[in-house]
Amino acid sequence: MVSAVGKAAALLRAFDPGVDVLSTRALAARTGIARSTVHVLAATLAAEGLLETVPGRGWRLGPLLVGLAGQIIERTGLVAAVEGSLGGLLRAAGQEVHVGQLVGGWLVYLHREAGPIRAPMDNRVGLRAPAWRGGCGKAALSRLEPAEVDERVARLCRDEDVPAPDPAALADELAVGREAGYVVSSSFQAGRTSVAAAVVDGDGRPLGGLSVAGPTTLFPRAVLARTAQDVVAAADRARLAVCGPAAPSGTVPRPRRGPPARSHGAERGGSTTVTGGAQ
After folding, report:
1. What is the pLDDT of residue 247?
2. Which helix (H) or strand (E) holds 99?
3. How distant, in Å, are the alpha carbons of 138, 186, 198, 266 from that of 205?
4. What pLDDT sits at residue 279?
5. pLDDT mean values, one per 10 residues, the chain (279 residues)
6. In this predicted structure, what is the pLDDT of residue 267?
7. pTM for the complete prediction?
8. DSSP letter at 92?
9. What is the C-alpha separation between 265 and 192, in angstroms, rounded?
10. DSSP assignment of 153-196, as one string?
11. pLDDT of residue 160
């Protein structure tokens, strides 16, 4: 029974943000499980709503996962906390606000809002991305001890065959963010910059991050400094909404005067929120 549960979990993990449908053959190749066993397990998972069939193509993640993930999102309170915390963040046409939840080594985008002008960006509500790729995820990781960051990154890369980041470069970038209280990142998409801060709980543990992002040209140094202050303040308001005014105000570092050096994560108008699972 334990072996069957592990194999079923491996089938679910085989789906990633870039692959919506997998055939039985593809699932077998990705998991190393015999094709006949994959078919039986996938059919069982589909009967329970964890997978669903796509006629002529194979299998995709099922609707039950949305409800299950929604319970986790609701439990952290991150979406509810940021609902009243984001006012005044957008200052220039083309900028957007993003909120993401840290899940292991992943960052799942839950909310985005923008003004009437949008610049094309490679993210969407529900997108799951390695946390070290974008500003929100890096900001969240910066609030963890380096050893825990290393463990989360290693586990994600091992279990889901995700290419590993440069460990020294990531450690340096997170150290700068840890000291400043926010992260400036331009690695998620070329030509896009994100200014992000972590949202933490009452124990200082990161729930996720929020950011202002957009074309890099919208963030000259003076704008970066002002945006960093606004983002950190919004993250602090969200923290208070999560854990109440009795929480110690020192759990979010004060931003230093100048922005940290740019690194290479941006995140994607209108307002959209997800209260279910990741796509």
Report:
1. 45
2. strand 96-103
3. 14, 24, 9, 23
4. 29
5. 80 78 93 93 92 92 73 66 73 86 90 77 79 96 97 91 92 96 92 94 92 93 92 90 58 48 46 39
6. 44
7. 0.72
8. S
9. 7
10. HHHHHHHH-PPPP-HHHHHHHHHHHHHHSSEEE--SSTTEEEEE
11. 80
Instruction: Indicate the residue type of 91.
Output: R
CB atoms within 10 A of CB 163: 6
Neighbouring residues of 215: CB distance < 8 A, sequence distance ≥ 6 = 94, 119, 191, 192, 193
Cα separation of 97 and 120, whole Å? 14
Token code pair at residue 127? 């997108």
How far is Cα 37 from Cα 69, in angstroms, rounded to an integer?
Answer: 26
Which amino acid belongs to residue 178? R
Q: Which two tokens stand for residue 35?
A: 């094709």
Q: Which residue has the tokens 């669903």?
A: 52
Residue type (1 letter), 199: V
DSSP 120: -
